[in-house]
Amino acid sequence: MLISLSVRNVVLIDKLDLNFDSGLNVFTGETGAGKSILLDSLSLVLGARADAGLVRHGEKQLSVTATFQLNGEKSIFNLLEEQGISFEVPEELILRRTVTQDGKSKAFINDEPVSISFLKIVGDKLVEIHGQFASHQLLNASTHLSVLDSYANLQQEKQQTEQAFNTYKKALDDLTTAKQELETAQTQELFLREAIEDIEKLQPQQDEEATLVMKRNQLMNGEKIITAVNTSVQLLDNEQQGIIHQLAILEQQLTKAAQYAPNVFDNLLKTVNETQSALADISGELESVGETLGDVSDLPEIDNRLFALRGLARRYQTDINELPILLDSFRQQLNQLEQSETVLHSLQETANATYQQYLSHARKLSQKRTEAAVKLDKAVCRELAPLKLEKAQFLTKILTDETNISANGIDSVCFMASTNKGVPLAPLNKMASGGELSRFMLALKVNLATTAETETIVFDEVDSGVGGATAEAVGERLAQLGLNCQVLVVTHSPQVASCGKSHWHVQKTEQDDKMITTIRSLSESERLTEIARMLSGAKITQTAEIMAQELLNKS
């Protein structure tokens, strides 16, 4: 709700500070007094296009500040959080706009600079203006669906439909991704099969390269190894000088000595015998090793194996040791490819099932919207005749298209109207602007007041071109609307003015050779005088005062 408006240096307004109440606030005054300037100032702070011509003559810049009391408007809180603007719930929200003589404009929310476009987004959520040259929100067909849903209290049905849509959308995304992966995999199928066949032919083993290199090195150095082995064997087995032959002579000598000293040489003879046996084993092992390493016939086979493995590794851009792992990976990919048709079928069934679930929720939502639309049409049409729109028609047009689905369902909604008999229905934004349109919007807002997000609504001369009973009907509906939200109305009708909870008088006076617009709240006696003036003109008669009192008493 708008709780205050401060205006500085806007055309005829020098300095103005207004504090507003809830309910219906009416603004009256003679033509040209500056009521339109007040609305221009409010529009400016809500994000309207800036005009340097609004800056008061002789001043460097204008400024307008509007303070709003927030009462849990979640959409506004979300917007502010996204922009990093600090606020407290349910504290005040302060909008400020400045415009300099050269047309440069700045915008602030809670003293933090914001773009003009963001200011307008926030402003549109705070105030809805209906006038002869401006109208917000309800003339925008993109809002009609949410307006109808709010009117019908379909929040639960909308949430269920949105959840079903998101579930279907995920299933569809999963299916699409799987199809794309299958298409990519299918182009790899021939490669995978050929690669698996290539690698399986060689059957590479883990750490095989190191083993082969070691064997190759041994074979390449076989001559040196054989020389060393043969020399070692000669040292052990030479018939004259070999260690084993010498140990045999040692054994003979110790045996002779043992004949003369029994038991003294037993341990020594035992050790010599064991040493002879161990050296004989070493000699035999060396001869075996020599025979093995002396055969270099395996060298070409080892070279060929190494060459083949290294070529295979280069072909698949990996290490020889990674070839077994790569083979397992290729086998898994091929297996997944072979199983992909089954997976696709399952994902398709899931997508079909979630789509049907979505359609079920969307159709129920659509049916309730249709029922609510009929109810809204009748309610609005009942309001038209008393507002001197007895020949007007209103229709909530719902187009249902199950091929065009969204989180909001399968419907698009457009409010259609015709103000004259025989004139085809057309979207609200195609209607001629002016008091007629304002009254039409009033009829609609009266029925939507309890569900509207905007807490402040402005009507500029909604009573234009009407009087008497029609003006009285307008006033009654504005007052009724004021029970659910704050209403600001600029009026020339005494019937409308008498219905206000608060009455403001706009006046243009001359001060220091300059014209100044002032606005002040009227007391009960001043209000009576103002309504009498509106009834009789400049000269207030006793009859006018009596009629004014009757209007106030009736309201």
In short:
The protein has 555 residues and is of the alpha/beta class.
Layout of helices and strands:
Elements: E1 2-10, E2 13-19, E3 24-28, H1 35-45, E4 61-69, H2 74-82, E5 92-100, E6 105-109, E7 112-114, H3 116-126, E8 127-130, H4 144-152, H5 155-202, H6 208-220, H7 222-237, H8 243-260, H9 266-293, H10 299-315, H11 323-384, E9 393-400, E10 411-418, E11 426-427, H12 435-448, E12 456-460, H13 468-481, E13 486-490, H14 494-497, E14 502-511, E15 514-521, H15 524-536, H16 542-554
Helix pairs in contact: 4-11, 5-11, 6-10, 7-9, 8-9, 11-12, 12-13, 15-16
Structure commentary:
The protein is an alpha/beta fold. It is 54% helix and 17% strand. It is built from 16 helices and 15 strands. It has helices at residues 35-45, 74-82, 116-126, 144-152, 155-202, 208-220, 222-237, 243-260, 266-293, 299-315, 323-384, 435-448, 468-481, 494-497, 524-536, 542-554; strands at residues 2-10, 13-19, 24-28, 61-69, 92-100, 105-109, 112-114, 127-130, 393-400, 411-418, 426-427, 456-460, 486-490, 502-511, 514-521. The strands form 3 sheets. The protein has a 6-stranded antiparallel sheet, covered by helices on one side. Strands 8-12-13-3-14-15 form a 6-stranded mixed sheet. A 3-stranded antiparallel sheet has the order 9-10-11. Helix 7 (222-237) packs antiparallel against helix 9 and helix 12 (435-448) runs parallel beside helix 13 (468-481). The longest helix has 62 residues, at 323-384.
